[in-house]
Design goal:
alpha/beta; 43% helix; binds ligand C2E; binds magnesium ion; EAL domain-containing protein
Length: 278
């Protein structure tokens, strides 16, 4: 680090910082091995229409289980993979695996759209659109059964390029969602400048007993509606949150109240057990 910062400057030795850096380094070594040894799998979390109970889709979420059986949280390893330049590769694996599963559900008559997270570095790859096209072609999944979730940070690039990429994605029939909406740093102007279908409201805006305010939640739902976008709330854990969302006119929801992320087989069982309301 000292070297990267420009050379022969003297640094105070900080034992805890040193331990932290060693830990990160060890994790990175393990992560590189994991990429080669296929220690990853996907879990799927249902997205529902909270009013009708209909299943709107599932979000594919990446899991890493180390050979010692320990699971590492994506909140830890994804930023690390991103910094280490591993994300375009790992992200392509996720896309392919998510598409393969969407196709498997389609051919067994349990059609459901699969939403896949796309990292900023993956989105910036010049080959990104080609990769998506190749994955559709090789898995045989129609674009309408795929959704790509991008974050505001992925969109912080040349706006003409971003618009071009999103238009090509949409031309394939794929849904484009803006993930963790409200937590990024970008301007709101892209919301109508870009072909986005769906806003995913970050779960930090969900009111709770500790934080009972719903001003921002209500403003975001209103913004999405005013722009003609679909809006989905993530991190819905309680009946109260669901009722508030329905009052605000936000019917789509994802969260532990409905289902945790689970294996494809568990999704099948969960769907089968679901009473259909009208
Ligand atoms: P995200 O895309 O916003 O995904 C939603 C996260 O919220 C997931 O965490 C999910 O398990 C969690 N969640 C869902 N419902 C609830 C709830 O009711 N309560 C609480 N407390 N949490 C809930 P997870 O799986 O740990 O993923 C964390 C983040 O890691 C994701 O946030 C996403 O940014 C990233 N991530 C996961 N998989 C991938 C991937 O394949 N590619 C990329 N680029 N990022 C991924
Ligand atoms: Mg997501
Ligand atoms: Mg999200
Ligand atoms: Mg989030």
């Amino acid at each position: 680090r000292a070297k990267a910062d420009g050379g022969n400057c003297v640094r105070f030795f900080d034992a805890s910082l040193d331990a932290q850096m060693r830990e990160q380094q060890a994790l990175l070594v393990a992560l590189r091995a994991a990429v080669h040894e296929a220690q990853f799998h996907l879990v799927y979390q249902p997205q529902v229409n909270a009013r009708t109970g209909a299943v709107m889709g599932v979000e594919a979420l990446l899991r890493w289980t180390r050979p010692d059986g320990v699971s590492v949280s994506p909140g830890v390893f994804i930023p690390l993979a991103e910094r280490a330049g591993l994300m375009p590769h790992l992200g392509t694996w996720v896309l392919r695996e998510g598409a393969r599963q969407a196709r498997a559900w389609q051919v067994t008559g349990r059609e459901v759209r699969v939403a896949v997270n796309v990292s900023a570095s993956q989105f910036s790859e010049p080959s990104f659109v080609r990769t998506v096209q190749e994955v559709l072609a090789s898995t045989g999944v129609p674009g309408r059964l795929l959704e790509l979730e991008v974050t505001e940070s992925a969109l912080l690039q040349d706006v003409a390029r971003v618009r071009g990429v999103l238009e090509e994605i949409k031309a394939l029939g794929i849904t484009v969602a803006l993930d963790d909406f409200g937590t990024g740093y970008s301007s709101l102007s892209y919301l109508h400048a870009l072909p986005i279908d769906l806003l995913k409201i970050d779960r930090s805006f969900m009111p709770s007993a500790q934080r009972p305010v719903h001003t921002i939640l209500s403003a975001i739902v209103g913004l999405g509606q005013a722009l003609g976008l679909h809006v989905i709330a993530e991190g819905v854990e309680t009946q109260e949150q669901q009722d508030l969302l329905l009052d605000l006119g936000c019917e789509r929801a994802q969260g532990f109240l409905y289902a945790r992320p689970m294996s494809a087989e568990q999704v099948d069982a969960w769907r089968q057990d679901r009473p259909v309301r009208r």
